[in-house]
């Protein structure tokens, strides 16, 4: 057929076509016929493959190995739309609840809700819906926090054993926080968690163990605390260690409750760099700046003379001393300045006593 096609084309064109034109026409026809043949072959193969896949899918659905797809209609589209809307709504509610959980305490939310309801206008339906939703969330949160509190509160009101009678009133119980005071922890993508010892931490414990009853009171579990203290205090200068299970859970924080130490609070001194740690007894706490891994830090070593002075002079109530330094950022420097001032005042008094009368 292809061999006869040029002759037929010449006959149709009157026999006047040039050989070059005949060759061009022949090539175009061949390409067209080849393309049609390939397309037809692919169409047949596609139909065969689709039929085979359909037959295999039907067999799998019949045996239960492949779940039957629901029909694609208006009802199923509506169901999928409702399902997606419910998922998005749940995610939005969860995000909102998470924000209010971490941004505000229960007491703060209760105060905000009370003030919002006091200013609520009758036609403000959006604010009314927010108040109703917040009231339900607050009720759920208070109940949940109470359940957590029942599990997390200390199992006893006496965390430490009785102090020997000869030491009562004569020794101060020095309570130390762990993180941001003795050590600092940091998380990085390459190394994970890394724990750094503060400069002078071991010497600090070793020196103060001679003057105080030392207690480390942290909001971390024992599995985290004990390996650190075993390295900081290999000689067990610190006789007592209190962990997260010994803290009081309050407003989302693990607070150190000094009232449960079984000690007279007039002779209990707490040193910490976390505001949430001293929430119950701020009057017993020396509030320091947190240590965040700065090299060359001498904060603990500089604090030793102040604490030695406090222990050797047997103050009646450590809360009076804490009150006198409350708000002071650099307690060691302020202590040195006060000592210098007291020494100058004593020298002036001696000169007055030795001076000849006029």
TrEMBL record:
Major localization listed first in the record, in broad terms: mitochondrion
Domain FCP1 homology: 167-310
Claim: Mitochondrion is one of the keywords in the record: yes
Locations listed in the record: Mitochondrion inner membrane
Keyword annotations from UniProtKB, A to Z: Membrane, Mitochondrion, Mitochondrion inner membrane, Protein transport, Transit peptide, Translocation, Transmembrane, Transmembrane helix, Transport
An individual GO BP term: protein transport
Membrane topology label: Single-pass membrane protein
PANTHER family: DULLARD PROTEIN PHOSPHATASE
Family (UniProt): Belongs to the TIM50 family.
Protein name (database record): Mitochondrial import inner membrane translocase subunit TIM50
Source species of the chain: Edaphochlamys debaryana
Lineage summary: Eukaryota, Viridiplantae, Chlorophyta, core chlorophytes, Chlorophyceae
